[in-house]
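Comment thread on ticket #2218

A.B. wrote:
> Attaching the input chain for the structure job we discussed in standup.
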Amino acid sequence: MNIRIQKRNDAGSGSGWRFPVRVGSTRFRQACILIVACGLFLNPAIALSLNEETIEYPLKLACLYNFTKFVEWPAGSYRDPEASLAICIVGDDPFNPKLEGELNSRSVGGHPVEIRTLKLKDSLSACHVVFVPVAEKNQAARIVNGLKGSSTLTVGESEGFAEMGGIINLTVEGNMLHFEVNTLAAERAGLKISSKFLSMAKIVAK
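C.D. wrote:
> Ran it. Output below, let me know if you need it in another format.
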């Protein structure tokens, strides 16, 4: 299944999952239903009201949540068995607060999901996932370098993010969404990424 999304001038290139589809078509409705399947919406009618210009970030948020199901964190990543899985958005948060609120009612591997919006000056090492929006691309290298030695899954959406040591990069090319994965960065962080997920991504090993 393919889903077309709004192209961003800041996005880079890559290969992996592709999502082209015409708004109003059957496949577009399937794309919205996919977001529901990712567990992002409680009400499918919300997804079906999306259009091509508004689907990009709901889809990316759905992907961000779903990534956690394909990643195994090392022992000791949680302070206790009931601790939250922290997904941190750094700087300018591009996601809808209501959708983030819905994710706060979800759980992954028995851990409740907690969406946090943090500033660049905040400590990020306690986060299980750190998302670096394209608005913070000039700070991406500093954020990635600052998280070296931690077991944090870094996710970005700007060109070169994976090459600089980010673990997963979401890029848009020709209105299609792609995944890049830096497997060496994941190994250094002690993260195990599902081979099923890796088979759908472009591998960057630097």
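A.B. wrote:
> Thanks. Noting for the ticket: The helical segments are 26-37, 44-48, 56-67, 97-103, 140-146, 183-188, 195-198.
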